[in-house]
Amino acid sequence: MSEILGIYTVWLREMIRYFRQKERIISSLTMPIFWLLIFGGSMRTSIDIGSVDYNSFIAPGVVAMSILFTSIMSGISVIWDKELGFMKEMLVSPVSRFSIVLGKALGTATTAVIQGTMVMLISLIVGLEISFVTFISVIPLMVLISLGLVGIGISIASLMDNIEGFQLIMNFIVMPMFFLSGALFPINNLPSVLRVVTYVDPLTYGVETLRYTIIGVSNIPFGISLSVVIGFSLLTLSVSAWLFSRRK
Amino acid sequence: MNVIEVKNLTKIFNGDFKAVDNVNFSVKKGEVFGFLGPNGAGKTTTINMLCTLLKPNSGEATICGNDVNSDQREVRKCIGLVFQDTTLDDRLTAKENLELHARLYAVPKDKRKERIDKVLEIVDLKGREKSIVKTFSGGMQRRLEIARGLIHYPKVLFLDEPTLGLDPQTRKHVWDYIIKLKNDYNMTIFLTTHYMEEADELCDRIAIIDHGKIIALDTPKKLKESMGGDTIILDVDDKDIDKALKLFKGSKRFDGQVLLSVKNGGKKIEDVLEKCKKNNIDVIEANIRKPTLNDVFLKMTGREIREETVGLKEQLRRRRMRRHRR
């Protein structure tokens, strides 16, 4: 019982901090807006991807991107807590390391869902047409995708002690992950070498589940994508909990 | 029963640096136990092992009967900590910080408000609970941190340099609070400080640690007594210095003065002055100096306890953090 309270407490703190930093919320929306409005708006006339409008095609990809960026922030937040000292406050409390990781993960996933939802709303403005039921059913998917990415963030943060190192590694992970995920183009049109790489990228499966749910198009069967997303989340969260719990 | 029991505790960093080397001590219930030592002597490392943040390489330690290696959760339940560096969330309000702490320690919901109100009152921060911690001065943050460490009624309170970097007035305040709390809650206090007078005044017993080893452990009174009595300082006319040195066996010359080690300096000084008069030694001034804890420290470690350099390090850290915060 006290562990659940502990998870809730760590989650609650993430929420208070998130809503207190209004600038962060706004600035994290600028990138998705640029992709949707400028990139999507200008490329739609020159790219033909068959039955769907290009703007609608990339909308799920941009939602995934927004989840990716927000979720990876969990790592920054862990390092930040180490620097600020608040991490010590949590570590010497009776709450287990596992619960701290879970609280952080759920907190970040919640913010990712909020961000993702806002991006969806923006997509509606630029022409995406979806039903209310679809809109709601995307939320659990966003949580699952986010948890897997949060796991990566916390894992790397557990191995690092400074923000600089984290950012360096993140640049090598986040951008390739985004561009190779098929967020902006259909993966079955790719040359075979690149296609293999996209199949290795875990975000590909996230984008696929979202795209299937939102516009009914996918290259990989939904069942497979969903299984990969769930499996990946379980894996990275377990690894991050293990790395985080190690004592020197 | 001993609240803290430490046996052969050892921590080795990087394979060969013994930060804490085979340390043994025990702390009784309700005691204020002081842990003194120069920078890098192993004070914080010891505390970190006792509060389960670091894993000892060998040896064992129990807190309230719970082993720090196997019953970590139980250990953490019965201790409170105030670290050298701040561990508050400075984006949250004072009250939010306290509430989070109460939840982390599973303080029952119906008692949270009452306890938060009480600790805020004790540290004189009532009325400021809705302010963001960032806007607090260093002294206020420290007080808030101490308040936070008390919400779950810890049996043992660890204070790692609790008054570091505070001005003398605030330091006194903080100590008044801590002593009041100790009496109110019957807590055991484990304290590190490099303010010798503080340790002398507050601690029931003191352990002096240097290079990871405990080199002395006793009451402040006995530690000072071990110095072999008082020092009489005679400031005599320059021409008489040699005469005085010859007259008093075992006296030393230091900085143009004659130093004599004696027991019960207050009684002896009369005899000394009498003797000087008889031998026509012109005494300008005579003083008695009681040994201080600083003298003990100096004798034991061969050096003066240095001012902590954390101030500068902390400043750099803060600056680095500000840069990233944008």
SSE inventory with pairings:
The complex is a heterodimer of chains A (248) and B (326).
Chain A: H1 2-20, H2 22-43, H3 54-84, H4 86-91, H5 97-125, H6 132-159, H7 163-179, H8 192-200, H9 202-215, H10 222-245
Chain B: E1 2-13, E2 17-28, E3 32-36, H1 43-50, E4 58-63, E5 66-67, H2 72-78, E6 79-82, H3 94-104, H4 109-122, H5 138-150, E7 156-160, H6 168-185, E8 188-192, H7 196-202, E9 205-210, E10 213-218, H8 220-225, E11 230-236, H9 241-247, E12 252-254, E13 257-262, H10 265-278, E14 283-289, H11 293-301, H12 310-325
Parallel strand pairs in B: 3-8, 3-9, 6-7, 7-8
Antiparallel strand pairs in B: 1-2, 1-4, 4-5, 9-10, 11-13, 11-14, 12-13
Helix pairs in contact in B: 3-4, 3-5, 4-5, 5-6
Could you walk me through the main structural features you see in this protein, from its secondary elements to its overall organization?
The complex is a heterodimer of chains A (248) and B (326). Chain A is built from 10 helices and no strands. By secondary structure, chain A is an all-alpha fold. In chain A, α3 (54-84) packs antiparallel against α5, α5 (97-125) packs antiparallel against α10 and α6 packs parallel to α10. The two termini of chain A are 28 Å apart. Chain B has 326 residues and is an alpha/beta fold. In chain B, 40% of the residues lie in helices and 26% in strands. Chain B has 12 helices and 14 strands. Chain B has helices at 43-50, 72-78, 94-104, 109-122, 138-150, 168-185, 196-202, 220-225, 241-247, 265-278, 293-301, 310-325, and strands spanning 2-13, 17-28, 32-36, 58-63, 66-67, 79-82, 156-160, 188-192, 205-210, 213-218, 230-236, 252-254, 257-262, 283-289. Chain B has a 6-stranded mixed sheet with strand order 6-7-8-3-9-10, sandwiched between helices. In chain B, α3 (94-104) packs across α4 (109-122). Chain A binds chain B through residues 1-2, 5-6, 8-9, 12-13, 16-17, 20-21, 83-96, 163, 247-248, and chain B through 51-55, 73, 76-77, 79, 81, 83, 85-92, 96, 100-101, 103-106, 148, 317, 321, 324.
